[in-house]
Write a structure and sequence with these properties.
The protein is mainly alpha-helical. The chain folds into two domains: 1-185, no CATH class; 188-231, no CATH class. Helix content is 77%, strand content 0%. Helix 2 crosses helix 6 (94-119) and helix 10 packs antiparallel against helix 11 (211-227). The chain is globular. Its main location: membrane.
């Protein structure tokens, strides 16, 4: 009854579980490397479906207007719809599947707990214990996702020069990264950029650091800071 009363949430729950299943079979290619590539695409397509459903839930009245597009780009679900479209037809990259896998796992776990509560407050204690452990590590998982988002930017550039990526991919991914940096709901991308900058500046200011390395890092930090969007 609970599932039927929340049909859209249930559909997203099923698509997220399918995303986790396909992502796991890509990361652990138990059925062979050829099949793993198809599971990579299925995971991203399932994530695109979930993101589209979530975006519809957040913005139910579609309008073909600039204001609606600007509002849609503020939603995290729109960001990951774009993310799925960026990578779905590209060369499979293990790093790119982790954000999809982990976000789906976190959201599926949250809804699974609601389903268990609707059934009985004491049902399946072993599963409840696993879900609570996952929830307890949510902050670390979100930081890991943000780290993946950041380091995928140089990865897309490397893929371009290695012949495994398209010319547009780094530019479109840069747009995705600016959206994640400006996210209202998820500040972890901004937090990780700040933490990485602090760590790098601490290391290069040590006397043992070569001068040319220090200058290169400071120039890189300055360049990346200029590319960062303004956050309201």
């Amino acid at each position: 009854q609970y599932l039927m009363a929340n049909k859209l949430d249930t559909a997203m729950w099923i698509s997220r579980l399918f995303t986790v299943y396909c992502s796991a079979l890509f990361v652990l290619p138990l059925l062979g490397l050829h099949e793993a590539a198809s599971f990579y695409q299925r995971a991203l397509l399932a994530n695109a479906l979930t993101s589209a459903l979530r975006l519809h839930q957040r913005l139910p009245h579609f309008q073909l207007s600039r204001a609606f597009l600007a509002q849609a780009l503020l939603e995290d679900s729109c960001h990951y719809l774009l993310y799925s479209l960026i990578f779905v037809n590209s060369y499979p990259v293990t790093m790119s599947i982790f954000p999809v896998l982990l976000f789906s796992l976190l959201h599926a776990a949250t809804y699974t707990k609601k389903v268990l509560d609707a059934r009985s407050s004491h049902s399946l204690p072993f599963l409840r214990n696993l879900l609570e452990k996952l929830n307890a590590n949510q902050q670390n998982i979100l930081k890991f996702i943000a780290c993946n988002e950041i380091f995928l930017m140089p990865a897309t550039v490397f893929m371009l020069f290695s012949g495994q990526g398209s010319l547009l991919q780094p530019f479109i991914y840069y747009r995705f990264l600016t959206l994640r940096y400006s996210s209202r709901r998820n500040p972890y991308c901004r937090t990780l950029f700040t933490e990485l900058r602090i760590v790098v500046e601490h290391l290069i200011m040590k006397p043992s650091c070569p001068v040319f390395v220090r200058r290169l890092c400071l120039s890189s930090i300055s360049f990346i800071s200029r590319l960062a969007p303004t956050v309201a």
